[in-house]
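User: Just a sanity check before I run the rest of the batch. Below are the structure tokens for the first item. I only need the designed sequence back.
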């Protein structure tokens, strides 16, 4: 990780065969047992992705956005409080407003998470020293629960590997990074 400009001084190992790692935060990162047993090329792809999260400060940004949105929710609840004592009609309207705001926050936080995944994928290939081919094979090997409904697609913090692969291809073919070797 040091080669990618990320300092890691503590690594926690989690149970489980899933090949995964978490982005370093203040020098601490987590890896699964599955990660430790994975092929080195796969470990490199994952570390480059996690380094991307760290270098792009995704955790800090996600926490900051969540704090601001949560503060907004508190304001919504306070604003709805007078409605609740006005009778059944205003009560329902107030409750519906607060619930809509809460759902809006969940959807917004999940959308931010998905945008961070795409950005970390791009970073891994552009700056993380992983070739597009290796990264695409890594994405194809990822397991992801099926996102069958629009609802669970809206609330997913990670896009499906297929979407990530397609977005990466589109981005690399978009001509913005023609300096990359082998990318036209
Ligand atoms: Zn990620």
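Assistant: Here's the designed sequence for the first item:
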């Amino acid at each position: 990780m040091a080669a990618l400009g990320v300092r890691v001084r503590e690594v926690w190992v989690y149970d489980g065969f899933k090949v995964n790692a978490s982005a370093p935060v203040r020098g601490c990162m987590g890896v699964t047992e599955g990660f430790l047993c994975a092929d080195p090329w796969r470990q490199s792809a994952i570390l480059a992705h996690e380094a991307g999260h760290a270098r792009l400060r995704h955790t800090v940004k996600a926490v900051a956005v969540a704090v601001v949105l949560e503060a907004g929710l508190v304001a919504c609840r306070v604003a709805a409080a007078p409605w609740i004592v006005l009778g059944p009609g205003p009560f329902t309207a107030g409750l519906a407003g607060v619930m809509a705001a809460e759902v809006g926050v969940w959807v917004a936080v999940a959308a931010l998470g998905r945008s961070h995944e795409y950005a970390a994928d791009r970073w891994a290939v552009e700056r993380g020293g992983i070739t597009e081919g290796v990264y695409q094979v890594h994405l194809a090997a990822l397991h992801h629960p099926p996102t069958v409904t629009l609802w669970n697609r809206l609330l997913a913090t990670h896009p499906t590997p297929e979407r990530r692969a397609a977005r990466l291809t589109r981005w690399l073919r978009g001509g913005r990074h023609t300096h990359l070797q082998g990318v036209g």
